[in-house]
Amino acid sequence: MQLLFSVIGVTAFGAFALLFSMIVVRQQNRALIRQSEVQSETARLQIEAQREIARQQLEAQTEIARQQADVQLKASKLQFNAEVLSRNRQEWINTLRDELSEFVSYLTPLMATDSQAESEDPDRWQYFLENVRLIDRSAIKVELLLNAKEPESQQLSKLVEDIGTLLRKMDGVKSTKVLDALGNQIDDLVEQLVPLAQTVLKAEWVRVKNGE
Question: Is residue 147 in a domain?
Fold first, then answer.
Protein backbone atom coordinates (compact mmCIF):
# COMPACT_ATOMS: atom_id res chain seq x y z
CA MET A 1 0.00 0.00 0.00
CA GLN A 2 2.77 2.29 0.87
CA LEU A 3 4.42 1.42 -2.33
CA LEU A 4 1.26 2.30 -4.19
CA PHE A 5 1.07 5.67 -2.49
CA SER A 6 4.71 6.25 -3.28
CA VAL A 7 4.13 5.47 -6.92
CA ILE A 8 1.08 7.72 -7.01
CA GLY A 9 3.02 10.50 -5.31
CA VAL A 10 5.86 10.28 -7.80
CA THR A 11 3.47 10.25 -10.71
CA ALA A 12 1.58 13.28 -9.38
CA PHE A 13 4.80 15.13 -8.80
CA GLY A 14 5.95 14.38 -12.33
CA ALA A 15 2.66 15.54 -13.76
CA PHE A 16 2.88 18.71 -11.71
CA ALA A 17 6.43 19.27 -12.81
CA LEU A 18 5.46 18.75 -16.43
CA LEU A 19 2.53 21.12 -16.09
CA PHE A 20 4.75 23.69 -14.47
CA SER A 21 7.29 23.34 -17.25
CA MET A 22 4.59 23.80 -19.85
CA ILE A 23 3.39 26.94 -18.11
CA VAL A 24 6.90 28.31 -17.97
CA VAL A 25 7.47 27.53 -21.65
CA ARG A 26 4.16 29.16 -22.56
CA GLN A 27 5.08 32.27 -20.59
CA GLN A 28 8.46 32.32 -22.23
CA ASN A 29 6.83 31.99 -25.64
CA ARG A 30 4.47 34.80 -24.80
CA ALA A 31 7.38 36.92 -23.67
CA LEU A 32 9.21 36.17 -26.90
CA ILE A 33 6.13 36.98 -28.92
CA ARG A 34 5.67 40.21 -27.00
CA GLN A 35 9.33 41.08 -27.47
CA SER A 36 9.02 40.32 -31.19
CA GLU A 37 5.91 42.53 -31.40
CA VAL A 38 7.72 45.33 -29.59
CA GLN A 39 10.69 44.99 -31.92
CA SER A 40 8.40 44.94 -34.96
CA GLU A 41 6.55 48.04 -33.72
CA THR A 42 9.86 49.76 -33.00
CA ALA A 43 11.12 48.90 -36.49
CA ARG A 44 7.86 50.14 -38.01
CA LEU A 45 8.10 53.41 -36.13
CA GLN A 46 11.71 53.81 -37.17
CA ILE A 47 10.80 53.17 -40.80
CA GLU A 48 7.96 55.69 -40.60
CA ALA A 49 10.28 58.21 -38.98
CA GLN A 50 12.87 57.68 -41.72
CA ARG A 51 10.19 58.04 -44.37
CA GLU A 52 8.99 61.27 -42.77
CA ILE A 53 12.54 62.59 -42.62
CA ALA A 54 13.07 61.61 -46.26
CA ARG A 55 9.77 63.26 -47.23
CA GLN A 56 10.68 66.47 -45.42
CA GLN A 57 14.16 66.46 -47.00
CA LEU A 58 12.61 65.92 -50.45
CA GLU A 59 10.14 68.75 -49.88
CA ALA A 60 12.94 71.01 -48.69
CA GLN A 61 15.10 70.13 -51.69
CA THR A 62 12.13 70.63 -54.01
CA GLU A 63 11.42 74.04 -52.48
CA ILE A 64 15.07 75.05 -52.76
CA ALA A 65 15.11 73.92 -56.39
CA ARG A 66 11.89 75.84 -57.06
CA GLN A 67 13.30 78.99 -55.46
CA GLN A 68 16.53 78.65 -57.43
CA ALA A 69 14.52 78.18 -60.61
CA ASP A 70 12.45 81.28 -59.77
CA VAL A 71 15.61 83.29 -59.15
CA GLN A 72 17.15 82.09 -62.41
CA LEU A 73 13.93 82.83 -64.28
CA LYS A 74 13.73 86.34 -62.82
CA ALA A 75 17.41 86.92 -63.60
CA SER A 76 16.86 85.71 -67.17
CA LYS A 77 13.83 87.98 -67.54
CA LEU A 78 15.77 90.94 -66.16
CA GLN A 79 18.66 90.23 -68.51
CA PHE A 80 16.30 89.80 -71.45
CA ASN A 81 14.43 93.01 -70.58
CA ALA A 82 17.74 94.85 -70.18
CA GLU A 83 18.92 93.60 -73.57
CA VAL A 84 15.62 94.53 -75.21
CA LEU A 85 15.65 97.91 -73.49
CA SER A 86 19.22 98.58 -74.54
CA ARG A 87 18.48 97.52 -78.10
CA ASN A 88 15.35 99.68 -78.23
CA ARG A 89 17.23 102.58 -76.68
CA GLN A 90 20.01 102.19 -79.28
CA GLU A 91 17.43 102.17 -82.07
CA TRP A 92 15.81 105.25 -80.53
CA ILE A 93 19.20 106.99 -80.34
CA ASN A 94 19.89 106.19 -83.98
CA THR A 95 16.49 107.49 -85.02
CA LEU A 96 16.82 110.66 -82.96
CA ARG A 97 20.33 111.28 -84.30
CA ASP A 98 19.13 110.83 -87.89
CA GLU A 99 16.15 113.14 -87.37
CA LEU A 100 18.31 115.80 -85.73
CA SER A 101 20.85 115.54 -88.53
CA GLU A 102 18.08 115.88 -91.10
CA PHE A 103 16.58 118.79 -89.20
CA VAL A 104 19.89 120.68 -89.10
CA SER A 105 20.71 119.77 -92.71
CA TYR A 106 17.42 121.34 -93.79
CA LEU A 107 18.21 124.47 -91.81
CA THR A 108 21.76 125.04 -93.02
CA PRO A 109 21.09 125.88 -96.69
CA LEU A 110 17.92 127.71 -95.76
CA MET A 111 19.77 130.09 -93.48
CA ALA A 112 22.43 130.68 -96.16
CA THR A 113 19.94 131.88 -98.79
CA ASP A 114 19.39 135.49 -99.76
CA SER A 115 15.98 136.35 -98.33
CA GLN A 116 15.60 139.37 -100.68
CA ALA A 117 16.37 137.28 -103.78
CA GLU A 118 14.07 134.56 -102.60
CA SER A 119 11.19 136.94 -102.00
CA GLU A 120 11.58 138.58 -105.43
CA ASP A 121 11.66 135.31 -107.41
CA PRO A 122 8.30 133.43 -107.14
CA ASP A 123 9.82 130.06 -108.01
CA ARG A 124 12.71 130.42 -105.61
CA TRP A 125 10.34 131.72 -102.95
CA GLN A 126 8.08 128.72 -103.39
CA TYR A 127 11.08 126.41 -103.08
CA PHE A 128 12.12 128.34 -99.98
CA LEU A 129 8.69 127.87 -98.40
CA GLU A 130 8.66 124.18 -99.27
CA ASN A 131 11.93 123.78 -97.39
CA VAL A 132 10.41 125.64 -94.45
CA ARG A 133 7.53 123.17 -94.35
CA LEU A 134 9.93 120.22 -94.53
CA ILE A 135 11.90 121.60 -91.61
CA ASP A 136 8.69 122.16 -89.69
CA ARG A 137 7.68 118.52 -90.15
CA SER A 138 11.18 117.37 -89.18
CA ALA A 139 10.97 119.49 -86.02
CA ILE A 140 7.74 117.75 -85.04
CA LYS A 141 9.40 114.33 -85.48
CA VAL A 142 12.31 115.36 -83.29
CA GLU A 143 10.01 116.64 -80.56
CA LEU A 144 8.06 113.38 -80.57
CA LEU A 145 11.27 111.39 -80.08
CA LEU A 146 12.52 113.40 -77.12
CA ASN A 147 11.89 112.37 -73.49
CA ALA A 148 9.81 115.11 -71.92
CA LYS A 149 10.80 114.00 -68.39
CA GLU A 150 14.53 114.77 -68.70
CA PRO A 151 15.74 118.36 -68.26
CA GLU A 152 18.24 118.35 -71.16
CA SER A 153 15.68 116.77 -73.48
CA GLN A 154 13.19 119.41 -72.36
CA GLN A 155 15.68 122.13 -73.30
CA LEU A 156 16.34 120.50 -76.65
CA SER A 157 12.62 120.13 -77.29
CA LYS A 158 12.13 123.81 -76.43
CA LEU A 159 14.84 124.85 -78.91
CA VAL A 160 13.32 122.73 -81.67
CA GLU A 161 9.87 124.05 -80.86
CA ASP A 162 11.12 127.65 -80.94
CA ILE A 163 12.84 127.06 -84.28
CA GLY A 164 9.64 125.52 -85.63
CA THR A 165 7.66 128.51 -84.41
CA LEU A 166 10.01 130.94 -86.14
CA LEU A 167 9.87 128.90 -89.34
CA ARG A 168 6.09 128.95 -89.31
CA LYS A 169 6.24 132.73 -88.95
CA MET A 170 8.35 132.89 -92.11
CA ASP A 171 5.65 131.20 -94.15
CA GLY A 172 3.83 133.96 -96.02
CA VAL A 173 6.18 136.79 -94.96
CA LYS A 174 7.37 138.95 -97.87
CA SER A 175 9.39 141.50 -95.96
CA THR A 176 13.10 140.79 -96.28
CA LYS A 177 13.74 142.68 -93.05
CA VAL A 178 11.40 140.43 -91.13
CA LEU A 179 12.80 137.34 -92.82
CA ASP A 180 16.35 138.36 -91.94
CA ALA A 181 15.39 138.98 -88.32
CA LEU A 182 13.69 135.61 -88.07
CA GLY A 183 16.67 133.95 -89.77
CA ASN A 184 19.09 135.50 -87.27
CA GLN A 185 17.01 134.22 -84.39
CA ILE A 186 17.00 130.75 -85.90
CA ASP A 187 20.79 130.90 -86.36
CA ASP A 188 21.21 131.66 -82.66
CA LEU A 189 18.95 128.76 -81.69
CA VAL A 190 20.76 126.34 -84.02
CA GLU A 191 24.09 127.26 -82.38
CA GLN A 192 22.59 126.21 -79.06
CA LEU A 193 20.85 123.14 -80.48
CA VAL A 194 23.85 121.26 -81.89
CA PRO A 195 25.94 120.97 -78.69
CA LEU A 196 22.85 120.27 -76.61
CA ALA A 197 21.82 117.49 -79.02
CA GLN A 198 25.30 116.01 -78.73
CA THR A 199 24.98 116.03 -74.93
CA VAL A 200 21.60 114.27 -75.02
CA LEU A 201 22.80 111.62 -77.46
CA LYS A 202 25.98 110.99 -75.47
CA ALA A 203 24.03 110.58 -72.23
CA GLU A 204 21.71 108.06 -73.87
CA TRP A 205 24.65 106.21 -75.41
CA VAL A 206 26.25 105.89 -71.95
CA ARG A 207 23.03 104.33 -70.70
CA VAL A 208 23.14 101.77 -73.47
CA LYS A 209 26.80 101.06 -72.72
CA ASN A 210 25.97 100.47 -69.05
CA GLY A 211 23.09 98.17 -69.98
CA GLU A 212 20.41 100.46 -68.55
Answer: yes
Taking the CB of residue 136, how many other CB atoms lie within 10 A of it?
Answer: 18
Single pTM value for the model: 0.54
Which tens digit of pLDDT belongs to each residue from 127-153? 666 777 788 788 888 888 888 788 888
**Backbone phi and psi for residue 173, each to the nearest 5 degrees, phi listed first:** -80, 135
What confidence tens digit (pLDDT) does each residue in 162-178 have? 888 887 777 666 677 77
Query: 174 vs 14, 139, 162, 167, 178, CA distance in Å?
Result: 151, 23, 21, 13, 8
Range of the domain at 171: 80-209
- Using CA atoms, how far apart are residues 89 and 74, in angstroms rounded to an integer? 22
**Residues whose CB falls within 8 Å of the CB of residue 196, separated by 6 or more in sequence, listed in order:** 152, 155, 156, 159
Q: Rounded distance, CA 133 to CA 161, Å?
A: 14
Q: What is the CATH number of the domain that holds 133?
A: 1.20.120
